[in-house]
């Protein structure tokens, strides 16, 4: 596996619409390696999710770390790849929460997101699946799928008043 270079804000790949992955492409060795490299890169950089455009690959693929036991935040994380994910909002409730991004290093901001979603996606074998998510896992998947459409978390912020460096976040904001 390889650790890939993460594109930072300002790189054009982060503002592009990523192309759909053809079902026949999913099982190819190069695409399987991309999934594994994306997971390795996310883990190396201590992320909870990563989208292919963030590693200079403009395809509709994200990986997300999810707890094996959704009821236990201390349970082991498993890496779940989503190929061509499509999100359906299940809740009218919008929750504003803190987000960061490996492509906008050392920064955080408050972002409104749907509280509950359903995702339809292909898995790493090309099989279609559906998953309902709420709370933090729903937030992470919405954040990562935004990258597939060239959207960064700062674009979703209602106000830039909460955009902060991590040091100031820890000092002034991490009480929320």
Task: Give a structural overview.
- The protein is of the alpha+beta class and 176 residues long.
- The protein has one domain (12-173): Peptide Deformylase (Alpha-Beta Complex), CATH 3.90.45.
- The protein is 25% helix and 33% strand.
- It contains 5 helices and 8 strands, in the order ααβββββββααβα.
- It has helices spanning 23-26, 29-44, 136-147, 153-156, 166-173; strands spanning 49-51, 61-67, 77-89, 94-101, 104-114, 116-122, 128-134, 164-165.
- Strands 1-2-3-6-7 form a 5-stranded antiparallel β-sheet, sandwiched between helices. Strands 4-5-8 form a 3-stranded antiparallel β-sheet.
- The model has no long low-confidence stretch (mean pLDDT 94).
Output the keywords.
176 residues; alpha+beta; Peptide Deformylase; five-stranded antiparallel sheet; three-stranded antiparallel sheet; 25% helix
Q: What's the helical proportion of residues? A: 25-40%
User: What is the count of structural domains?
Assistant: 1
What is the CATH architecture descriptor? Alpha-Beta Complex
Strand neighbour order, sheet with most strands? 1-2-3-6-7
- Largest sheet data: 5 strands, antiparallel
What is the count of β-strands?
8
Radius of gyration: 16 Å
- Regions with pLDDT < 50 over 5+ consecutive residues? none
Structural class of the secondary elements? Answer: alpha+beta
CATH superfamily: Peptide deformylase
Task: State the distance separating the first and last CA atoms.
Answer: 38 Å
How much of the polypeptide forms β-strand, as a percent range? 25-35%
Provide the succession of SSEs.
Answer: HHEEEEEEEHHEH
CATH topology: Peptide Deformylase
Overall spatial form: globular
- The tally of helices reads 5
What is the C-level CATH assignment?
Alpha Beta
Average pLDDT figure:
94
């Amino acid at each position: 596996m390889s650790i890939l270079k993460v594109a930072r804000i300002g790189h054009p790949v982060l503002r592009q619409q990523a192309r759909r992955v053809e079902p026949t492409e999913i099982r190819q060795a190069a695409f399987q390696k991309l999934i594994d490299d994306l997971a390795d890169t996310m883990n190396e950089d201590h992320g909870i999710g990563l989208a292919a455009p963030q590693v200079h690959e403009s395809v509709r693929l994200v990986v997300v770390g999810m707890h094996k036991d959704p009821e236990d935040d201390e349970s082991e994380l498993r890496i779940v790849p989503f190929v061509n994910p499509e999100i359906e909002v299940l809740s009218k409730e919008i929750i504003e929460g803190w987000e960061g991004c490996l492509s906008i290093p050392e920064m955080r901001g408050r972002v409104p997101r749907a509280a509950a979603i359903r995702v339809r996606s292909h898995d790493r074998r090309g099989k279609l699946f559906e998953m309902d998510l709420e709370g933090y896992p729903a937030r992470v998947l919405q954040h990562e799928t935004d990258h597939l459409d060239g959207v960064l978390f700062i674009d979703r912020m209602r106000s830039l008043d909460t955009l902060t460096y991590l040091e100031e976040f820890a000092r002034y904001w991490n009480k929320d």
